[in-house]
Design brief:
260 residues, mainly beta, Lipocalin, 2 domains
Length: 260
Amino acid sequence: MRKMVSALLGALLSLCAHATNFGTDASDLWWNSSESGWGVNVMQQDNTLFMTFFVYGTNNAPTWYVAPAVVYSGGSGNTLAYSGALYQTSGPYFGGSFNPSNVTNRVVGSVSFNLTSTTSANLTYTVDGVTVSKSLTRQTWTAENFSGTYVGGSSGTLSGCSQNGPAEDVDVFTITQNGTSFSLVAANVQSSVACTYTGVYSQAGHLGSVTGNFQCTNGSSGSFGLLELDGTLSGVTGRLTTANGGCGFSGRIAGARRTN
């Protein structure tokens, strides 16, 4: 059984590692909260963003632009930079028969999308010589609820501890969430140690975060941060940091949802 769980942990964390090739997943609906009425949809696959803009033209009518290949161009500090061409398209009326040969597009300019934190970004784009720069955040319209039981584990690095370096655990996670109240119990499959993480939940776009304190049955305790908490029908992933005096852990957790 432990071999099966270990194999599952390896598969889950390899998926997480693939996502970290370019840091934080930028996929979301992005907006400027003081300018409600327009926004940018971002979908990320590997190192490439597909972006759609819903804005307004000089006649104040809805206008659509698309950037299908906004590619990762490097990182500096906490910033991840993406850039690509911006297009305007036209095509047949949606209420009639659709003829793909009637779809046309032209390059109107370029776009740069710089992810400056987990929840914020700077957007600059040019349309026919007009340059626009905006500060954006992820837009949230409903809160996720991660309550459930997951089989998986954690993988990361210990520093400032009696034993430093790579650290991995195979765990069963039990999450209880009620509004902003959040509790995660991580029961180690390979030992009798269980740690309870309790804190306040918040959300930006589709990503959740929790800050609070933890207590383990072996006497260990301290503070923690759980960032980029992301859930699907299949499971949950996130970044976990803990601090216990001078001893700290930084890494990722992942779990497959238990269905029985």
